[in-house]
Amino acid sequence: MNKISLRNLAILLIIIFVESSFAQDADTTTKSNIQTYTPSKLLNKGQWDIKFFNNLYTETEATFNGVKADKARETYFTSTLDIFTGVSENNRLNVGLLLEYRSNAINGKSATSVLGFPSDNSSRNGLSSLAPALKWQPLSNVGNFSVQSAFHIPLINEESDANGVFLDQTAYMFQNRFFYDYTFPSGDWQLFTELSTEYNFGDEDSFANNTFVLAPGLFMSYFPNDATTILGFVQHYQRIGDFAQDFTSLGFGGKYQITPVLNLEVLYSKFVRGSDTGLGQSFNLGLRALF
């Protein structure tokens, strides 16, 4: 499957969401999980939130030292499993575990080759990191503001193998993600903001060692009805320290409440600018169960 057909697939799925949304009953009064449990919202004690999210990023051009050039295709597939549960009586603390599995390919292999999880001279895959995590509400009277803190532990010894196939960083990472959302009075629109910070350390051989990351994001969501979300977003990523890079991406997508417990998320984004980075596009598919 080539780059164009992948994009068309993402657009087709979102069109299906939109069409199905207007076929839903517009008089629904109970909010669904996709409206209520944004990333800013913490779980009640005893609740569970399990999210399986898949990101396929592929690039055929890059920019380094101010020069933009074509390159052989490289593709990086990341599959994450995030598990959280509520543990406090006042619903202000959640604990969780984050797991990442990666499958990457270089040397012009097709974008979908990574989905077969090959291991050859141009491909590599494996469980690359785990992270214990806390999600907490710092202000008792602001329920739509929360912080997620995680300590990412690498599970691999080498970032790149003898064939030059990169899998993941070997530096440790302490990450904080700040979430805030605002629902407009009409109830049909919601603004969500995120600021992610990272400190990477602990391995002098890692490209990420002694670097800091600031990554803000802005998401605007529209709810055609209770079961559906249509959204657009802009994200920026800035790494500073021993290795510096930055990029900006624009994207759109949708969420659909399949059952009272399970919802589906599809996103597409394009890297529109950057410095010392690839300029590719990403295709994202997520499933979330909340009970």
User: Could you name the ranges where pLDDT drops below 50 across 5 or more consecutive residues?
Assistant: 16-29
Characterize the largest beta sheet: strand count, sense, and whether it forms a barrel: 12 strands, antiparallel, barrel
Strand content: over 45%
| Number of β-strand runs | 13
The tally of helices reads 2
Rg is 19 Å
Distance between the termini: 36 Å
Helix/strand/pairing category? mainly beta
Helix-strand topology string: HHEEEEEEEEEEEEE
Describe the global form.
globular
Percent of residues in helices comes to under 10%
Strand order of the largest sheet: 1-2-3-4-5-6-7-8-9-10-11-13
Give the overall average pLDDT.
Answer: 91
Molecular structure report:
It contains 2 helices and 13 strands; from the N terminus they run ααβββββββββββββ. With 291 residues, the protein is mainly beta. It has helices spanning 3-22, 33-36; strands at 48-64, 67-86, 93-105, 123-136, 145-154, 172-183, 189-201, 211-225, 228-241, 245-257, 262-275, 277-278, 281-290.
